Amino acid sequence: MTGRYVARLLDLAFLSPALVEDIVAGRQPVGAAVAVDRHQCVSCSQHGERGGNGVRWPLRRIAVLLVLCSHMARRFDSRQAALATTCGIHVIQDGLYATIYVLLPVITPIFGLTYVQVGALRAAFSSAMTLLQIPSGFLSERFGERILLVGGLVVAGLGYLLLASSAGIAMLVLGLFMAGAGAAFQHALSSSLITALFPSEGRRAALGAYNASGDVGKLAFAALFSATISAGMVWYHTIAGLGLLAVVSALAVAFALRRLDVGGPPAPSGDSGRTEAKLGWGIRSRGGFSALTSIVFLDLAVQSGFLTFVAFLMSEKAVPTGLAAFAVVLTLGGGVLGKLGCGFLAERLGPMRALQVVQALTALGIVAVLVSPPPVTFFILPLLGVVLQGSSTITYGSVSDLVHRERQSRGFAFIYSVSSAAGITGPIIFGLVSDTLGLTAAMAAMAGAAILCLPLSMVLRAHTR
Questions:
Q1: What CATH number matches the domain at 78-264, 1.10.443.10, 3.90.1030.10, 1.20.1250.20, 2.40.50.140?
Q2: Looking at the predicted structure, is the pLDDT value of residue 149 above 90?
Q3: pLDDT digit string (tens) for 388-424?
Q4: Three-state secondary-structure class, residue 283
Q5: Rounded to an integer, what distance in angstroms lies between the CA atom of residue 345 and that of residue 204?
Q6: Model pLDDT, residue 268
Q7: Which residue among 27, 122, 171, 406 is least enclosed by CB atoms within 10 Å?
Q8: CA 12 – CA 61 distance, rounded (Å)
C-alpha cells in the first residue's frame, strides 16, 4: 500500500492546479485526473511549459504536492500512515548515520586526517546522539513528539550542509556533532509514537517494520554515496544533497503528522505537577525493567561484537580480505529481514517465548559459524543475521509493558541509550578477550552472553503481562 501511495504522489506532483482543485473538491477521481494530465502532456514539448514562468513553477508544484498529501492522507488508515511516516524518518536518519562510514575514508586524504582525528569525527556524531537521547524523551513529554522529530531532521540536515561546506577539521566536527544531535531526536520518539498508536495488537510487528526501515536506509544511503563517488561526483555535492533531502523531508513530515493529528503536545492537566511527582520515571516494575535493561545490553553487545570481529574470523579461516568483509554485508542483510520478521514472531509466539527462541538460535548460530568451513559459514551468516539483529525488535517492544503510558518517551530514550553504550563497549570487551585468549574464545563468549539472556527473559516474563 505504501509503495503505491508514494508512486501515485510522484505522478500527482506535476498535476495542474485546476486538476488538483477538481480532486480535492471531489469532482475528479485521482486516477482520471492523472490520465487527463498525461494526455495533455502529449501536446507539450516540455513539461515545464504548463506551469508558468520563473520560480513560481517549482513552488507551485511543491504546494500541489503538499495539498495532495493532505487530501490522500485522509484515505488511508491514520495508524498505517503515521507508521509509514516514522519509517521514512528512520530511513533518512539512519541513512545519514551510515553514510559516515563511507565518507570518512574519502575525506581522510583530502583533509590529511590522522586515525585519531578520524576517531574524533566518529565520536562527535555518536557522543551527540548518546548525550541527547534521554533529554529528547523528557522534552517530548512537554512538547510532543512531532515538533522534535521535525526539528531532528532539520538539525541533521543542516549538520550535513555544514559538513559539505567544511574547510577544516573544526567544521567537520561541528557538522557531524549537529548531525548526531539531530539523530538523537528520532529512535525514542518514533518508538513512543508507534506504541501509542499500536498499544496492544500489532505493536511489535509495527516496531519491527520501523526497525527494519532503518537498516534499509543504512544500506541505501551508503550505496548511494559510494555510487556517486565511483561515478566521479565530488563528495561534498552528495553530502549537500543528502542534507537538503533531510530538510525538505522535515517539511513533509511536519505536514503529514499535523494532518494525521499525531505526536502533538500532550493535553494540559490541572494536576500535572502532582502527576509528575507521582509518576516519576513511570516504571511499573523495577525488577522487570532491570532485567530488560540487562537483556538489551547483552544483546547489543553481542551484535556489535560479532559484526566487528566476524570479518577477522573469516580471515583466520584463510578467506581473502575482500570476501571476508562481505561476511558483514551478509549478516546485515539477514538483519533487515530479522528486524521485520521477529516482530511478527513475537505476535505469534508471545514476546518472551520468541525472545528465548531467538537468543538460543543466536548462540547456536555463532557456534556454527565458528566451527564451519568457509562455504558453509557464508550460507549460515544471513540466517544468523536474522536472529542476531531481529532480537532488538522483541526487546524494544517490551518497554511499553513496563513503563507508564505517559512516560514511554523517556523509557525508550533510556533503553536506546543503553543500547548505544553496549554498541560502544561490546567490541572493546570482546576485543580484550580476543587479545588475551584468542578470537575463538571471544566468539564463544558472545554465544555465552546470548545464552545469559535466557534466564533474564524468565525474570522479565514474570513482570510483564
A1: 1.20.1250.20
A2: yes
A3: 988 888 888 778 777 777 777 788 888 888 888 888 7
A4: strand
A5: 9
A6: 65
A7: 27
A8: 9
Q: What angle do the packed helices 321-349 and 203-230 form, to 10 degrees?
A: 160
d(CA 22, CA 29): 8
C-alpha cell at 353: 517465548
Among residues 441, 424, 422, which one has the least CA distance to residue 313?
A: 441
C-beta neighbour count of 124 within 10 angstroms = 22
User: How confident is residue 266, by pLDDT bands cut at 50, 70 and 90?
Assistant: confident
Residues 6+ apart with CB under 8 A from 201: 347
Distance in angstroms (rounded) separating the CA atoms of residues 249 and 378: 38
CATH topology classification for 278-463: Growth Hormone; Chain: A; (1.20.1250)
- Asked if 121 and 214 touch (Cβ cutoff 8 Å), the reply is no
Sign of the Cα torsion 299, 105, 336, 381 reads negative
Written as one string, the DSSP assignment of 334-371 is: HHHHHHHHHHHHHHHH-HHHHHHHHHHHHHHHHHHHHH
Rg (CA), the chain: 24
Q: What is the pLDDT of residues 245-263, one digit of tens each?
A: 999 999 999 988 888 888 8
> Is the alpha carbon torsion for 57, 63, 66, 70 positive or negative?
negative
Helix (H) or strand (E) holding 45, with range, is none
pLDDT above 70 covers a percentage of the chain that reads 79
Please report the pLDDT score of residue 31 as a whole number. Answer: 53
